[in-house]
Structures are given as structure tokens and as C-alpha cells.
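The instructor's notes for this session suggest beginning with a concrete chain rather than abstract definitions. Hand out the sequence below and ask the class to guess, before any prediction is shown, which regions might be ordered.
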Amino acid sequence: MKSITLKALIVLLFPIMAWAQGYPQKSTRVVIPFSAGSGPDMVMRIVGDKISKDWGQQVMIDNKPGANGWLAETDIKRAVPDGYTLAALDTTHIALQPLLYKQMPFDPNSDFDPISTLYTTKFFVVVGMNSPFKTLNELIAAAKEKNGRMTYGSWGIGSVGHLGAAMLEGATKTQMTHVPFKEMPMLYTAVSSGEIDWAFGTAATVSALYQAKKVRFLAYAGSQRMAGYAEIPTVTEAINISGFELRTWVAVFGPKGIPKSTAEKINQSINKALGDQETKDKLSVFGLEPWIGSPADVVKASEQDIKRYSGIIKNSNISLE
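After discussion, reveal the predicted structure:
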């Protein structure tokens, strides 16, 4: 038997040596089904920067908006489950799509592993700065008068923005016309120009237009007013609808089968980054709440949203092919 050369031995032992050193040994890619500058993109970049310094390895953000998130979801489903390809997905992708589609090329429950919570946020009712509506009460009154001719936009059929507006229609006994957009920037540009009457939007996603005084907030869909926007009433205050809230969450997922030790390290690192005061301060400016938790918390949030929105989807006859 020929003796094994040192070089050959190193080649044979390299996978074992790399495994023993632990995760991560190279850059990690995080796929995001939203445009650059959106809330999920911004938060993942902040957290990713913290993790990169902690790991000594780069965390790269890969934006893949469009197709209701399917581009990003298909990417993560096909990835090797080694922790080097992750995705930041939200309520719509995990809880709502299975309720909306009769057939999907993947199953969020069987194809993805929840790794970590990321953040939660609630929504404002957003209109253009030149909108004739100065209060939510005025907007609802006009919606009743126009009887279907009032328009609102969202970032896709069945999105939280769409379902939230359907909830508002039901609560106020109004009918409005839904205008779906492929991407968030297109949606809020249309709101600011007056192409559509209004939309739900988070402080993070609409921040640039709000700071530029191109859009105005009429009400906040939270249980109490948001810090930093104390002049904006809640929906309940504005039109006397008890308990109206609209929120979404974003969490980090990986392809099914990621080793438990790898998933735990990613979860711990993300939670550490979210608990950092600098991270908290940056997120609070945009009304985003760091969500420190476990994979079980992601599952629980998904189950709650399925229960909350399934009736709305059925009653509004919302479906996607």
C-alpha cells in the first residue's frame, strides 16, 4: 500500500477539520424578498453588521423582491442546509401564503426551518402630502360617499397591507378599490403622487418620503401612540374603532435540516445583536421593535396570524393562483 502524502492527508481531513472548528467558516448570505431600503432590508443590514464583527465573517444581504416573495423563498428552499444561506421572511410568506394559494412550489412548514425572531412593527395610514384628507375620519367619510371609488394600495394581493385594509373596510362598513403593486417603492411613490388615495405603511419603509414631506400619516394602527410620532392618533382614537391593530413580524429562516448547533449559534448571535443598545436606538427611530426570541416564538406568531387572518381571507374571497 502506497503511503499517503501530507498533501493528500490534508485534503482528506479538511472537511473534518472544518467541521470541528464550527460555524461559520465563510461568508453567510441572507436573502430578502424586499427592495433595498425597506424595513426588513434595513434591520437585517444593521444586525448583519453586528454579527459580521462578532463572527469575523461577512454577512451579505441579497435583495430579491418581486413574485410575492417566491424568488427568495425558492432560493432558500434549494440552498444547502449548512447555515450559509438564510432568508428574512415575514408574516405574509410564512402564515398567509398557504391560506391564499391553492398550490405552491414549497411549503413554509416543511421546507423552511425557523432560526430566529428579528423584529415586529405596526402600521400608519399613509396619504400623499397634497391629499385632501387631513384626518382618518375624513378619509372614511369620503370612502362611504364614493362607494367603491376610493383607492388604496398594497405590496401585493393577500399582503398584510391588503388584509389590514380589508379589516378597516369591514370595521367601517365601507367598500374601496384595492390596487396591488409589485414593490413597495412603487406603492409609496403612487401614494405620494396622488395616483392612489392611501395605503398602510410602516415608519421604516415610508421614512424617506415622510422626512421629505411627500406623505402624511393620518393614524397609527397600534394600541397606543408611537414614541416620536405622538401627534398621530391611533386608529381607535381617530374613528372610534375598538382594538384595531395591524402589525407584522420578520424572522430569519433557513432551508430545512440546518444542524441544531448551527441554528442555535445563529439565533444567539441575532439575539445578541438585537439586544445591543445601539441596535435598539436605530430601530426605535423607525418604530421597529427588536424581537428577541426563539424558533418556537416564530411558530407561535405564525399560528396566531393564521387564526387571525383566515376568516378575513375567506370572507373577502381573496385568493391567488
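Then share the key points. The chain has two domains: 23-120+248-315, 124-239. The longest strand covers residues 112-122.
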